[in-house]
Structures are given as C-alpha cells and as structure tokens.
Amino acid sequence: MRIRIVDAFTDRPFAGNPAGVLILDGDAFPADDWMQRVAAEVNLSETAFLHRIDAADADWALRWFTPEVEVALCGHATLGTAHVLHRAGLVEAGAPVRFRTRSGILTAEVDGDGLITLNFPTAPLSPQDVDPALVAALGIAATTCHWTGPNTDDLLFEVADEKTVRGLVPDLGAVARLTRRGVIVTARADDPAAGYDFVSRFFGPAVGVDEDPVTGSAHTALTPYWCERLGRDELTGYQASSRGGLVRVVLRGDRVQLSGHAVTTIDGELLV
C-alpha cells in the first residue's frame, strides 16, 4: 500500500506540519486497531486514511489518527490528503473534493497554483472558568478561557503578546492530565506588517501530540475568535512552533475557509 508524508501549510519541505496519507483499496476502512498501529508507526501528529465512496454528498470517507487516538477533526492532514489526490490525478484543479468525516462533510479545493482551501465548520466558543492548575502548567497569565466544542475539544487561552506565545515552555505532563484533546494559546501579532494577524501554539500531550507544528483544526476556533476581536472576516494566522506555518482564514457564517500549500516529502510503500 502506498503511503505519502506531506508537509502541510507550507510551500517548502521540512516546514509546516507533516502528515501521513494512505489511500485505501476497496470501499471500507480496515480494522481500527490496524489503522492505530500504522499511525503509531508513522509517529506524526496525524495520519489520514481514506477510501472512495459512492454517495450524493461525498466522494471519499476520511479518518485521522494520532499516534495514540482517533480524532474527530484534523486540518493539516486533510490539506495533505487533498494535495495527494490532486497530484495523483484523482481530483481536478478547481473541482472541490468532498470528504465524509466524523465532523460532517468537509470540502477541499486546489487552485491552479497549488493553493488548497478547506471548508470546515467553525468551532462554537464557550466561556469556561480558568483552571489555575492548567495555566500554571502552561506557564501563562490568562484571565479568559474558551472551550472549542465537541469536534476539537480544546481549550483556548489568549495571552498578553506574541513574545509570550513564542516563549512558552509548558509542563506537558501536567497539561496531559488536565486536558482532553489539547490547548491553544494565542495572541495578537506584535507587527501585522510581518504578514500575519495573530499567532498561536497548540499542545496536545493527552492525545500523543506534545506540540503540533501547525493545527488547521485549531483555526476553526481561532478564526471566529480573532475575526470578532479585530473586526475583519479575512485574516492570516501564524503558528509559532519550531517548524512554523501560515494559515489564511476566511469566516463565512458558521463555516471557515482555511488555505495553505503542501509539499510531498516521502512517497513509499507500506509493507504490512
């Protein structure tokens, strides 16, 4: 079986967020434990598995696994999957590809320059009490906290400035004990002239992802959050991990468009 490793939300290799992508034979998923073992072997933040379906609302069924668990929504591995389908000639440029997932129908469209635009549901933000133990584990001073809804199941914290986001060194063991999927920490960009409007980092040690390099699904919460704060419906986010990546976002009611490029870095065979 062919497997690709794709760097997503970047136009150059060894940046952005790497994901595994496996296009399965047949019209059904293999056993869950097999996919989980493959994802553990690949050992990236997510590995995507997909197969064709004959349905009125979708072309492919798509699932994502971290090295430890299945997740309900993943942005970068979906973007990587669209990139693989486009390069394999399985979808035409400008023609949307539709995925059936645990988070509903998601679409991706590749333009002539290789820019991929995902259409995802926005995350409903619910104010939460700040857990002193969690902010201590993150090493931040935060007075507000939001839950991002069932698809992502993250907590979103805004901090004072970009420098704080970039300098975080959290206690990941404590974060894992105090969260479900993960934690987003964000701030307004210090200098919007740098090409982005807000910064973020994402920590998900509870699901086997200590720090995710560029988290598309987190931007389903970051987009409505920052669009309201900044009074605009088109923004660019920068995820300030060691690899880093830009996510261009557009808010459209209860949907969000996430755009970026992708690069295939490994193309090989899975022998089991």
Automatic annotation (TrEMBL):
One Gene Ontology cellular component annotation held by this UniProt entry: cytoplasm
Key word Metal-binding present: no
Keywords, ordered alphabetically: Isomerase
Superkingdom of origin: Bacteria
Pfam family, one: PhzC-PhzF
Catalytic residue positions: E46
MF (Gene Ontology): isomerase activity
Similarity field: Belongs to the PhzF family.
Stated name of the protein: Phenazine biosynthesis protein PhzF family
Organism: Actinoplanes regularis
